[in-house]
Amino acid sequence: MGADEGASSRSSAALGVDTDFGAFSVDGPWNLDLDDITWLAGVDSLRTRVRNHVPELTRPRRLPPGRRVATIMTTFGWALARWKLKRHHDQTASRTDLSIRLRLASEKLGTTYIKLAQIISSGEGIFPPELVSEFAKCRDQVPAETWDTVRSIVEADLGRTIDEAFTAFDQTPLAAASIAQVHVATLRNPDGTDGPEVVVKVQRPAVDATVHGDIAASAWLAPFLVGRIPVAALANPPALVEVFAQSIVEELDFRLEAQNMLDVAQSLHQLDQTGYVVPRPHPRLVTRRVLVMERLHGFQFDDLARMQAEGIDPHDIVRTGMIGFLEGALVNGIFHGDLHGGNLFVQPDGTTALLDYGIVGRLTESKRVSFLKLLMASTSNNVRGQVEAIRDLGALPHDVDIDTVIADLGLDGGGVDPTTLSQAELVGEVNRLVKAMLGYGARMPRELMLFAKNLVFLDGVISTLTPDLDLFAEVSEIAMWFVRRHGNQLAADVGIKVDTFEIDLTAMKNQFGVDPATDGFTYRELQDRRELITRRFTGRDDVDRLGPHLHGGR
User: Fold this and answer.
1) Could you give phi then psi for residue 52, rounded to 5 degrees?
2) Distance (Å, whole) CA 430 – CA 536
């Protein structure tokens, strides 16, 4: 059942204890009754209206939509011009300099472009590392709104004074991002005593009008930028603007985020994913610009020492992350769309608290089945099935020649091992592949980008927590677990039968550049290959090997 068709359905009867239907903490500060949440009525239709507004924002226009276009052109144009005028000794220095200039330009343009930078910063493996590293500075360097501004928004939206709603409200934000900032507060009980500790998310003033104007301006500019940004992952600016617009417009109404929290919590509970906990949104104190939610406590997701001290097996955390993410997407068609270190932490009992639901992937039934096909094809050496699934997800035109794509990209095993190429050959091969993808009309649909970003994050989690994990064994185990647990659905959706399905990682090994006869392959070995390819791509490998000769033998 896809999320658009049913994952947000509501029970018609009071369900008693909310842990009976959602992945919430055992001892919550309040109990959620889905039939008695004031802000929930009409949220589904609100989401539809918000989504339907995106094509209007991104539609082609003959004339620029306002003076903001000139500001954006001048800011980014000046950044690119200064980058081009500076002589760079190597490609790494060039990309680093360009990334710094793009980050400074984004910060100067404000909310919308800082948000775009933040999204790119969590796309390690999709975007160049220099760009990811530089844009990561936008995560925690956004100036906070003044206390007077925060107070006025909270009081206007909740219809009561701060002192009437809370006994304490920390004026210094816990975190400040481009769209909102969060504060720790203590609710006031009806009798005036201290209630539970909460987190209050407050939207910045007039941010919706700013974002809408920036999206329209960016959509007008994007076609002129095709082929002009020297970053392969940004080779299709119009598609990037569309994907970004689809994500950010839903973040501008916190009622949608609160519904995301409920829906993901219900999906996790339905799938018996007890390793996750979702903070409860307050049943009364949620508006378009204010979201009051339960505060959860824990430690950083990558704190291996703390994990070991608490007796928590890092492998359990990794597998919970992989299975929970995949199962939510492939079975229920809904998944958290912005996994990164700031959005989840580990609790002392070993469960993972999952935070920040502004970006959530919701798959239509057809896309959910396409993702399912992609997973099963990836683990059964069905290369054609993988490409067909990617096409059906919207990454390739429906009339694309599948055989040509497979041959051009070397997916049939006819490709070359990148570690055997020289720098010039490697750069040429990358340029060829990018040109081929653009020639096919390739684009990155929102759901596929969110899915890929999450996989990249989980890739990093494995690197930190379990670097010696056997990737082939883990993929095989998860795939077979999935087949055993969801065999009936796999049979109905993609024709897979449990008793005949076999794991074949030949295609995956080809993509890694590993001998098909290889039985085991650890993440540490994968990292070594990646580092070698990076050194070869940037020319550092040649410098490392020829250094003494290049420096006169010194």
Assistant:
1) -70, -15
2) 12
**Contact status, residue 409 vs residue 416, Cβ threshold 8 Å:** no
- Using CA atoms, how far apart are residues 492 and 495, in angstroms rounded to an integer? 6
Q: Which pairs count as long-range contacts for 7-15, CB under 8 Å and 24+ apart, including other chains?
A: 7/263, 7/266, 7/267, 7/332, 7/333, 7/334, 7/362, 8/44, 8/259, 8/263, 10/34, 10/35, 10/40, 11/35
| Beta carbons of 280 and 32 less than 8 angstroms apart | yes
351-399 pLDDT tens trace = 999 999 999 999 999 999 998 998 888 888 888 998 999 999 988 999 9
Query: Residue 190 CB: number of other CB atoms within 10 A?
Result: 6
- pLDDT for 147-190, tens place per residue? 999 999 999 999 999 999 999 999 999 988 889 999 999 999 99
Nearest one of 535, 1, 499 to 267, comparing CA atoms: 1
Ordered by start, the domain boundaries in the chain are 51-140+208-251, 367-540
3-state helix, strand, coil in the chain (%, to 5): 55, 10, 35
What phi, psi does 124 have (nearest 5°)?
-60, 130
Q: 131: which residues sit within 8 A by CB, 6+ positions away?
A: 95, 98, 99, 102, 120, 231
**E-only strand ranges, 139-234:** 166-169, 175-176, 180-188, 194-203
Average pLDDT of the residues in 445-453? 83
Mean residue pLDDT across the chain: 85
Report yes or no: 537 and 426 within 8 Å, Cβ to Cβ: yes
Instruction: Provide the CA 145 distance to its chain's centre, in angstroms.
Output: 26
Residue 549 CB coordination number (10 Å): 8
Helix axes 111-121, 237-248, angle to 10 degrees: 100
CA 384 to chain centre: 26
- The beta-carbon contacts of 377-382 under 8 Å, at least 24 apart in sequence, are 378/507, 378/508, 379/475, 379/476, 379/479, 379/503, 379/504, 379/505, 379/508, 380/501, 380/502, 380/503, 380/504, 381/504, 381/505, 381/506, 381/507, 382/507
Cβ proximity of 383 and 507 under 8 Å = yes
